[in-house]
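Lay summary. Proteins are chains of building blocks that fold into shapes, and those shapes determine what they do. In this project we predict the shape from the chain. Here is one chain we studied, written as its sequence of building blocks.
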Amino acid sequence: MAAGGGPGEGSGSKAVGHRPTSPVVDGTLPPRGAAADGGPSTVVPVGVVPVGWELEGFGRSIDGRARATVRAYAGDVAAFVDWAQRAGARQPSEVDRRMLRRYLGYLATRRYARATVARKAAALRCYFAWALRCGLAPSDPAGRLSAPTARSRLPRVLDTPELDQMIDQRPSVAGATPVDAALACRDHGVLELLYGCGLRVAELCSLDVGDVDVAGRALTVVGKGDRQRRLPMHDGCQAAMAQWLAGPRHVLAGTEAGEAMFVNRRGRRLGQRDVRRIIDRRAGVPTHPHALRHSFATHLLDGGADLRVVQELLGHVSLQTTQVYTHVSKERLRSVHSATHPRA
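And here is the predicted shape, written in a compact code that computers can read:
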């Protein structure tokens, strides 16, 4: 979660006056209500965001991004504004690169994870680039703002026995209640799609019945940034979807389910926590839901698929995002070579 709350609202004219010298040293802020230069207080009360920051307008400018990104960036920028106001900055034009660097230093003292600090820096770059375009700031102090890069962690790839256990070894439903039998059918369909189509968990949870074309062996997915893509289904996915829609879904679906493809025990649209519980029940070892998507991509590349084809299937805008899986495949090739070659 991003630090701080969502963007606040305010009204009134722009604050004017001299540019305060930032009192922040090694992340230390002045007492609330104290002026930056020791004189009469000019600090806007914390939590009240003046119109000069235009956080509502910034929020509208990033509406095309993924919903999680919009929420995170809005919270990150609002948290910075709260901090900057206590440091004496009353509008974007009063923020300089030095203040931004001190803010990142402040975050480091609060022991935020590297990935979180990097995301907050990206949010500030996005905000100040927008502020410059809108005339809210004379220059962009965050243009080359950098933060410690997050440690790269290669995703864990599930091997064939793990996938067989998770997807194919379904629990027996002999003597089970209709609800329990329906849940077992749903769980199987969820796992088939996560691995068979490489879906993000959020994409799977947002599927509607009309998005799944069983006869055409395809499904339509809305991914990050509301970008739509159409994916093929293999025989196993098609059979699992046909079985789920033939009856078990109707056993579970309540009035609140609407057109949701997958529903939970309470009859509502399946949530991401529900998916995690499904995987926890079926996996032999602790497994992150995203591991199925990682395995999908890596196995395609191991089988000789073109990188750009994998990019399209995953819904990545940038090919660089997909290239992480080439690194995974190379590591797998090295490990297989070391384990099997007689001279390795």
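What the prediction tells us: The first strand starts at residue 212 and ends at 213.
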